[in-house]
Design the sequence.
């Protein structure tokens, strides 16, 4: 039955690709611009031979005592105005640029629909012991010398709105990316816990290029993290309408969480297979279809483990995480209600 279904999918993809090319709202061509990308980014899979002390998770300590409004960098670590534009980053589908603040700290600034949910996602992952960047949401900022080819709808002169400011922790530099299907942690409790967290937050954009490996010069560790986590808190999978697929509380409330479970494994609704209509881009469609396994067949013991960590978060901490993303109060209440229901489902397994 599964083989017949796969064959039908392939036939549909091939047939649709005989049609003239068409644009799909909210779906990129997933090809990088020819404009120069930031030279400190390395998007090649990390060489396993250079790994000496890889880490994916650390013990977060007393989870209920953490400040999810300030996050990893703390309230005092926020970017400080004035800001000065350095260069536009043409990598990926969202408009980004690099800027320096009054303290001469370099920040990577992201505009668009992913900015707010990404800050929230980073708070939750950090609280559970996963590695993240220092992320903050700035509602309005003036960027001196701003020159952008993309993202003009979020820019008024030199003023940007609802922007995510991100920096890597000190002593860390990117050395590559890691693959979901091939990494040092496959099968571990911590790796499977990360798979569950992608479903908890509805992170459907699980391309390998959205993962990063940082070299920590102060500890001689290679830190593995999910570094691009903005496609969260919306639909279970890529949507025809971009606005529905991330940071949309209506679709998040209606989305699926646990699909199936038995005594040994659990299947989640995220990442969901792409809709057949999105097969106009065959390569992207098949790639996303191949990601569905990340939310499937997760050992129930590992699901319970991450659920036990999530359960330590208080109601106020969940509220604070969404406050950090500057969501409106009514949205926050609805988001937290869904998250608490999901945490309860995990606890009941």
Sequence:
């Amino acid at each position: 039955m599964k083989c017949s279904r796969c064959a039908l999918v392939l036939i549909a993809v091939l047939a649709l690709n005989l049609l003239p090319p068409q644009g799909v709202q909210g779906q990129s061509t997933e090809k990088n611009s020819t404009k120069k990308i930031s030279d400190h980014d390395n998007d090649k899979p990390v060489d396993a031979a250079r790994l000496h002390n890889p880490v994916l998770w650390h013990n977060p300590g007393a989870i209920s005592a953490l400040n999810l409004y300030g996050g990893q960098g703390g309230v005092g670590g926020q970017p400080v105005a004035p800001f000065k534009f350095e260069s536009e980053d043409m990598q990926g589908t969202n408009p980004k640029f690099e800027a320096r603040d009054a303290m001469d700290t370099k920040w990577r600034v992201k505009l668009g629909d992913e900015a707010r949910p990404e800050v929230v996602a980073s708070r939750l992952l950090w609280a559970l012991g996963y590695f993240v960047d220092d992320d903050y949401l700035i509602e309005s900022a003036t960027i001196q010398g701003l020159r952008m080819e993309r993202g003009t709808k979020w820019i008024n002169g030199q003023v940007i709105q609802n922007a995510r400011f991100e920096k890597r922790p000190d002593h860390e530099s990117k050395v590559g990316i890691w693959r979901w299907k091939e990494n040092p942690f496959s099968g571990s409790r911590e790796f499977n816990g990360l798979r569950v967290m992608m479903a908890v937050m509805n992170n459907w954009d699980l391309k390998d290029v959205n993962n990063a490996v940082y070299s920590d010069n102060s500890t001689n560790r290679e830190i593995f993290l999910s570094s691009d986590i903005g496609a969260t808190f919306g639909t279970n999978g890529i949507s025809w309408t971009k606005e529905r697929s991330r940071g949309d509380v209506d679709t998040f409330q209606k989305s699926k969480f646990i699909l199936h479970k038995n005594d040994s494994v659990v299947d989640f609704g995220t990442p969901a297979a792409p809709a057949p209509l999105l097969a106009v881009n065959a390569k992207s469609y098949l790639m996303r279809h191949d990601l569905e396994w990340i939310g499937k067949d997760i050992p129930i013991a590992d699901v319970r483990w991450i659920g036990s960590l999530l359960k330590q978060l208080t109601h106020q901490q969940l509220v604070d995480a969404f406050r950090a993303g500057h969501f409106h109060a009514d949205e926050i209440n609805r988001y937290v209600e869904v998250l608490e229901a999901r945490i309860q489902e995990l606890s009941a397994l």
In short: Residues 25 and 240 are 6 Å apart (CA to CA). Confidence is low (pLDDT under 50) at residues 1-40. The radius of gyration is 20 Å. The first helix runs from residue 2 to 16.
